[in-house]
Design brief:
mainly alpha; two-stranded antiparallel sheet; rod-shaped
Length: about 170
């Protein structure tokens, strides 16, 4: 293919699975911590106990949104992986169609392929121009869709990054 590397759907999917497993583990750990705190609370008194309970409550309050953010980010990455795989397949099919019509895709545009690509015929030339316009429009739509998917994924990842940064700051306080 003559366009820049689009990305690796399998790597996105693997990262998504890792994030979602981590979110599940955090949720499980939060529940275990909550149960342990409840078990020891009745007989555990004094300033150290109060301080520890307060700190543990802050950690528990932070774990739930962090787990939700990781799970959400994982879901969005999984969707992006699916979208990228479909877009890559569509782009390959479009490139094959373009090549069969005597064009090639370079830098997001259709260009006449090198060499002799047809016969000197007015009707065939007009059909070639129509075919090129159709292919160019499909390419434009495909690239626009890919851009929207990237922008959406970027927004979701930025949102998760900010939430995780706030959670990190809250835990340091």
């Amino acid at each position: 293919m003559s366009h820049p590397l689009l990305g690796d759907p399998a790597a996105l999917s693997a990262l998504a699975a890792t994030l979602r497993r981590t979110a599940l583990q955090l949720s499980s750990d939060a529940e275990t911590l909550r149960e342990a705190l409840e078990d020891c609370s009745p007989g555990w008194t004094g300033p150290a106990a109060t301080s520890t309970r307060r700190r543990t409550a802050a950690v528990l309050a932070t774990l739930e949104p962090v787990a939700a953010a990781l799970d959400g980010c994982g879901r969005h990455l999984q969707q992006a992986s699916t979208d990228l795989a479909a877009a890559t397949a569509d782009l390959r099919a479009l490139e094959e169609s373009a090549l069969a019509a005597g064009f090639e895709v370079r830098d997001g545009r259709l260009h006449r392929a090198w060499g002799i690509t047809g016969v000197a015929d007015g009707v065939a030339e007009a059909d070639g121009h129509r075919r090129r316009d159709d292919l160019q429009e499909r390419l434009r739509q495909l690239l626009a869709t890919m851009g929207r998917h990237r922008a959406s994924l970027t927004a979701h990842c930025d949102e998760a990054m900010h939430l995780l940064g706030r959670a990190s700051s809250a835990l340091r306080a």
